[in-house]
Amino acid sequence: MAKERLYEWLDSQMSNMFYTSNNPHEVPEYIKANLKDELRHYQEEAFRRFQFIQDDNLIAGISNAGFQRKQLLFNMATGSGKTMVMASLMLYLYKEFNYQNFIFIVNTDAIIKKTQENMLNSQSNKYLFNPSGISIDGEQIMIQPVDNFPAFKDKNTIYLKLTTIQKIHGELIKPRENGISLESLEEEDIIILGDEAHHFNASTKDEKKNKESWEKTIVDKMLYLRDGNKLLEFSATINMDDKNISQKYSDKILYKYDLGEFMTDGYSKNVLRLQSSENDDEKMKDALLLSQYRKLIARENGILYFKPIIMFKSSKIKISEQKQLDFNAIIENLSVESLTKYINQRKTTVSSNSTLYKVFSYFLEQDLDSVIREIQEDFEARNILNANEKNMLNEDNAVLLNSLEDINNPIRVIFAVAKLNEGWDVLNLYDIVRISEGAGVTRTATDSEAQLIGRGARYFPFEYEGEKSFKRRFDNQNTDLRILETLHYHTINEKGYLANLEKSMNAVNLISSSDETVRILSTKLKHSFKNTNVYKQGNLFVNESRETTPEDFNSLEKFTISKEWETEYFGSTVETDYKGNINDDTVIQREFEYLTVDKRFFKKALQRNPFFRFINLKKYLPLLKSKDELIDSEQYFNGVSIKVSLPKGQHISDLSAIEKLEIIDKFLTYCEEKIRKNYQKEIGLKVFKPISIKDTLRDYEVVVPLYETGHITQRIELHQMKGKDWFVYTDAIMNRLEYAMVELMGSFIHELEAKYKQVYLIRNDEKATRYKLTEFGGPRGFMPDFILYLENEEFVYQVFVEPKGEDREKEDAWKQEMLYALNGSDVEIIGENDNVKLVGIKFYNNKNKREFISDLSEKINNGEILDGKLELFIGE
Q1: Which residue, 675, 704, 724, sits at the end of a domain?
Q2: Which of the listed residues 63, 166, 640, 803 has the most CB atoms within 10 Å of its CB?
Q3: 534 and 429, same domain (yes or no)
Q4: What are phi and psi of 246, to 5 degrees?
Q5: What is the SS3 assignment for 640?
Q6: Three-point CA angle 215, 189, 107, nearest 5°
Q7: Do 39 and 183 fall within a single domain?
Q8: CA-CA-CA-CA torsion sign (241, 245, 249, 251)
Q9: Cα gap 252→197, rounded to integer Å
């Protein structure tokens, strides 16, 4: 058994120099093309770890380290898109390992209905695959739901059985006609996908040895039935502090991405607690007004469809039913007089910097008669759903509950007890109100609440100013729009309960604060800087962009497709350890031959791949006139050479027509990936134009919540910069990594001041400048965190400096490439001569200070090393 945990071992192995330099594992293009949405960086990392652990070339090193790959667990935060990872793994296991049988096991029927929408209903907005269809190697792939796996399988079909733990247990213990049985499972390998996997651990948690338990059914009876079977578990709640669970899962947790990381990365709403001593009726009124305030703020800012949901959470069904009646009465009895009186009374009881104070002030300035009419229309009884009703989980209600974001879904309020604690995907839940009557205050109760809050914290990707974002965009800005990225949890102000709630939130690393605990940090441009010619007359430079034209895509070369393509057929397997050392004594010798591409084969291969249908190709190759031109023209496939690696002694002439066709299929898949990847509607150019510094920089402020639960790795702090004339703002508002870099640069700034007449470090905060570059040859925007402005009699340098956490280096590698490209001779600056130079340098982080200083010194100090704080390097 391994001494360290699998995910920790993978952290070290996948960050070592040999692995990162070879970079062997990337998400294949066929995965990206067949998913509806782009994988996020952490989902890609989860996928890459699975590739690593399944790589046969690394199996010796993995085994020697004490790890296995038959049963693996992905420990990922609620709301982080675990099902998207499952979908990508299904395609990968089908394509690379020929698995066709998948069993998806969950704990409740509600999750099954949700998964049907995710995996099977291409008309659903929750569908995870490409709605146009799944295509791999030119073949259309079907996902077919089954109760039992057929003995004779259709080609190009993935068979998916959706079931609960309880049902699969019953089927295997007492087989039924046309159902699944251990005998039927003995015939072929299966992949078991376990969602909310903590439910599988009954025997571990209870320390029982009951052979008929659900866990025994899945692991002992199904998983080990065949050597090729695999169990892939997914859970947000694996308690590794429990000795038994830790021992069981130490060598199985492949990837760990907790709620704190998810929230810090900006993929969730912010979570604020409204702690109140008010009764339930008043909490209901507060939530009602807060919810409607969100809707109205959205409308005032051009966000036309924004429907925030309220959830009222009770401890018992009878209480929940009564509270629904009470809420209906509140809506019916609203009047201008009663609402005005309530708002004025409540306003005196809340802090002046709280959200509720802002809400109450807002409504006192509105036409309350109009406000009430809209509230009574929005919150009429038919727009309220009670999740406790017996028919709640019928098909219509389940779809309604899992499509709350849809434009035609009218629901504004959910009343619930426990049915929605797991498996409920909702993005536009903004208020969770804890009904006080009968509520528990134990740690068990607060653990459940923390889980629900985590589920409600999922981000709602609304469209603003023509753009839809899947991450928060108003963090730290003092704007009313922050309310659209904030979940409020309305709870009681009781000491013992709050202590338990805090423990529960910390246990899942749920980052939150009470509503009033925010700071507004502000900084201004220094007067001394505003009096300089640099500020008054100086420029920054931003690159231009343009829409692409048909001429940009008039040949395969424009997509970086090589006319000579190599592939391996009848590939040999060479075993290496995880460092790349070859363990096998023999390597199969290989020889290359060229495949003569017969026009008939090419036409047939094109017909087999839906991507190469003419109507689809015209989107990417707008000047293409016909399929014949695609084959006959030198600009396209005419002249292509396919070089095939064959084991010594075998020849192209030995291959059958089908085998030759499969080689051309592979070539077309390569072309498809290149075309998809390199086609852009707008691209950044290497042509830079000047923009005035005084019109670009401005004073700004940052709103910083004082988080009270969860672990924050990068807290934003204010650092006074008095006496540091080289920093253009009075204060530096930044995280620890950014400020460490500023301190380092400050330690050698005197050396630069001896060389340059003007030396200024400009903080490029999105709240301050909106100064953004556009990716060269691509559409992505890039705001370098800092610009170092240097000027003497001969030169003006603008150095783009970017601190980057190690966990973000891979995701943002394109930014590093862009910074390096700034140093090229092909960069043009409009209206300037060669005396103005743009400089990009290596990312800064805590591990590469030496390389950072070396690169900076080489480019702006004639290679003479800037001394810096040498003590910063001690111990490295």
Answers
A1: 675
A2: 803
A3: no
A4: -60, -45
A5: coil
A6: 30
A7: yes
A8: positive
A9: 12
Element (H, E) at 788: strand 786-791
Rounded distance between C-alpha atoms, residue 58 and residue 490, angstroms: 51
Whether residues 385 and 457 share a domain: the answer is yes
Tell me the two tokens of residue 833: 């001569």
Contact 776, 686 (CB under 8 A): yes
Are residues 660 and 768 located together in one domain of the fold? Answer: no
Write the burial class of residue 130 (CB in 10 Å: 0-12 exposed, 13-18 middle, 19+ buried).
middle
Same domain, 727 and 767: yes
| In-domain check, residue 798 | yes
**Tokens 């805090």, located at residue:** 502
The domain spanning residue 172 has which CATH number?
A: 3.40.50.300
Residue 358 sits at the vertex; the CA angle it makes with 353 and 360, to the nearest 5 degrees, is 125
Higher pLDDT, 374 or 403: 374
Q: How open is the CA angle 724-728-733, to the nearest 5 degrees?
A: 90
Q: What does DSSP say about strands 786-791 and 796-801: parallel, antiparallel, or unpaired?
A: antiparallel
Tell me the residue range of the domain where 79 lies: 6-257
β pairing state of 157-164 and 253-257: unpaired
Let me know if residue 264 belongs to a domain: no
Q: What is the pLDDT of residues 247-287, one digit of tens each?
A: 888 899 999 998 888 988 899 999 998 887 778 999 999 99
How far is it, in rounded angstroms, from Cα 43 to Cα 3? 26
pTM higher than the cut 0.90: no
The closest of 92, 82, 12, 97 to 42, measured between CA atoms, is 82
Neighbours of 506 (CB within 10 A): 17
As a whole number, mean pLDDT of residues 305-317 equals: 93
Is residue 520 within a helix (H) or strand (E), and if so which, with residue range? strand 518-523
| Phi, psi at 575, each rounded to 5° | -85, 130
Q: Report how many domains make up the chain.
A: 4
Structure tokens of 82?
């675990």
Whole-angstrom distance, CA of residue 867 vs CA of residue 749: 10
Same domain, 466 and 321: yes
Model confidence pLDDT, tens digit, residues 590-607? 688 888 877 888 888 888
> Whole-angstrom Cα distance, residue 716 to residue 702?
9
